[in-house]
Specification:
122 residues, alpha/beta, 45% helix
Length: 122
């Protein structure tokens, strides 16, 4: 997926520190019009950062959202309706749950790079 014709989009990644988050950030930074401007380790950090840092795209690891993940998605849709929200999950059933909660896209963590970039692009 190419982002060359679009203006720069500010991205926040919310995921636990580690190799998966590092790989995700590297993939996003390799896209010419995506600028990763913030990372959050947990939902409370996500809320604090969003209060002072506007973003157009949020890529969230469903694993850090916990049992209140759908409540967080509802809150994000209410507070930041223009921001695109993509959730990465471990199980197929979680995709439907997060989409129903309001996520723009929910993908399995092992999805192809192209699938993730297409979900981000909308």
């Amino acid at each position: 997926m190419e982002f060359r014709q679009q203006p720069s989009l500010h991205v926040m990644v919310a995921a636990a520190p580690g190799i998966q988050r590092d790989a995700l950030i590297s993939l996003l930074r390799a896209q010419p019009n995506l600028i990763v401007i913030a990372t959050a380790d947990d939902p409370s950090a996500l809320r604090r950062i969003l209060a002072v840092t506007p973003v157009e795209i949020m890529v969230l690891d469903g694993g850090i959202l916990g049992s209140a993940g759908t409540d967080l998605i509802h809150w994000l849709r209410k507070e930041y309706p223009a921001a695109r929200c993509v959730v990465l999950v471990n199980r197929t059933a979680q995709c439907a749950v997060y989409k129903y909660a309001g996520a723009d896209a929910a993908l399995l963590k092992g999805c192809l790079d192209e699938q993730l970039l297409a979900a981000i692009a909308g």
